[in-house]
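User: Can you predict the 3D structure for this chain?
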Amino acid sequence: MTNEMLENILRRYDLDRPVPTFLRHNENRTYRVQDRSGNKYLLRVHDPFVPGMAGLQHRFDGIVAELDMLEHWGRWNEREVQVPVRNREGGLVTTFEENGRKIHASLLTWLEGRDLVKNDLPYEDTIRKLGEQLANLHAFFGRYEPVGLEARPHQGRAYNDKMAGVIRSGAEKGLFAAGDADTIEETLRLVNDRLTGTGSEGPGLIHGDIGLANTILTESGEVRFIDFGFYGRGYALTDTAMGVMMLPADWRRRFLEVYSGGKSWTEADLRKIDGFMLVAIIGYYVFQFGNAKMHDWMRERMPMLCREYCLPFLAGEPMLERIGF
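Assistant: Here is the predicted structure, written as structure tokens:
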């Protein structure tokens, strides 16, 4: 993307002499933008580095649905979170053309801080803030009236079936062994069996991609979630399982205690969390499926995933403290 294109995008916003600095190009192209007054923003150009990563979340209606949620999320919170900035026309999304293609961009306020790292996590204060922040997000989701969910990704039972099909196609192409594809399919079938009666897309709203890289430790020491690119329908326990996987094994039950407000967890719910942890791992393989640079890593890791985690899960072994940190 040329500097002239960036300047044209930023002119669509009410900013005073904005200066963009490139950050990275992964699922989106991202830039930090600072204006003359020192105000900072995050510019996202919704154009994945690997075309195969493109999904509903990169289309106009999907981006609008995400940003509407983030606007309301900002109103819900008393403390700072990342919220969208509307352009001069009042729109949440700015559309432009590059090489004959329509591409969408959005601008968010900047959240000062840094990515959470593993060394932050074996501490009571951080675990407590992480659990409280996730509980707050899910409380908001319970009251928010969503728009445009048909244009958003979902992570329900149908999503699990789709992932099994992707892994099966990888076996047919020689990326995975047929036996490993069988194990993944059985794992996802068991997860879905435990979710019977909850619909194909999931009963609620979720962040959908909780992890260290999408969690900010602010300058004031608060924990905040960013990057809602996979926001959509699903199961709250999906987010909870992803939060669990961020933590050392001996802190996971404390996180669950904080998140639940001290309520006890049933064995059935803990076993669902086991399954959602595996769903999150398998989901990473599926998301990277179109990225040829990751294929050697997948070939090496898939047998280990099946042997160390999926087969014990299928045998009924608890996984909460077993799956790696």
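The chain has a mean pLDDT of 93. The first strand starts at residue 19 and ends at 25.
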